[in-house]
Design a protein that fits this description.
heterodimer; A: 111 residues; mainly beta; six-stranded mixed beta sheet; B: 114 residues; seven-stranded mixed beta sheet; four-stranded antiparallel beta sheet; 11 strands; 0% helix
Chain lengths: 111, 114
């Protein structure tokens, strides 16, 4: 069963605009969430995380928002740059144990 | 600092043959993971080691998959016999502290089973 879902397989945005990537989860016990970025032929790289005690975490151009009541998190990239073009995976876990990954969203930033 | 090393990068085998993948984690990382990523899907955890002990292997198909991490450093994942549905990228990752979620992934080993 897919406990973490990314319903948008792809997203295109203009350079300089905001990119919003969404992720939904079903397990209310999840308390730690992460976003990973993956370029072709490379392994995923950690981007940003958030624990369930927060509703927002910011790191430079990247901000993750968590809505526990809706079981939804989102990643905002502002401003988007062509180098941000990659596949983005969200992942969730219970107290840092097994991480469940979504199916990924392919972001294309158009120059 | 050297990253997570994996080999081979690519492997093509016939069904029912066996294959082995090797992983060397980042020095000092106690936790090592093997993930399977089938095309179009997210990575799925196969097995997690803490030092040389298994923490979670609940999703490892134990009738055909095996993994070991001798001496708590590098690790080997074996598939025997392989099936068509095993075609995937096998990702190894390591982390310093298992609960932070900051996994460092290798480039992966792409397996094609014909």
């Amino acid at each position: 069963d897919q406990q973490v879902k990314q319903n948008s397989p792809s997203l295109s945005v203009q350079e300089g605009r905001i990119s919003i990537l969404n992720c939904d989860y079903t397990n209310s016990m999840f308390d730690y969430f992460l976003w990973y970025k993956k370029y072709p032929a490379e392994g995923p790289t950690f981007l940003i995380s958030i624990s369930s005690i927060k509703d927002k975490n910011e790191d430079g151009r990247f901000t993750v928002f968590l809505n526990k009541s809706a079981k939804h998190l989102s990643l905002h990239i502002v401003p988007s740059q062509p180098g941000d073009s990659a596949v983005y995976f969200c992942a969730a876990s219970v107290t840092g144990n097994q991480f469940y990954f979504g199916t990924g969203t392919s972001l294309t930033v158009i120059p | 600092e050297a990253g997570v090393a994996q080999s081979p990068r690519y492997k093509i085998i016939e069904k029912r043959q066996s294959v082995a993948f090797w992983c060397n984690p980042i020095s000092g990382h106690a936790t090592l993971y093997w993930y399977q990523q089938i095309l179009g899907q997210g990575p799925k955890l196969l097995i997690q080691f803490q030092n040389n002990g298994v923490v979670d292997d609940s999703q490892l198909p134990k009738d055909r998959f095996s993994a070991e991490r001798l001496k708590g450093v590098d690790s080997t994942l074996k598939i025997q016999p392989a099936k068509l549905e095993d075609s995937a990228v096998y990702l190894c990752a390591s982390s310093l502290l298992f609960y932070t979620g900051e996994l460092f992934f290798g480039e992966g080993s792409r397996l094609t089973v014909l």
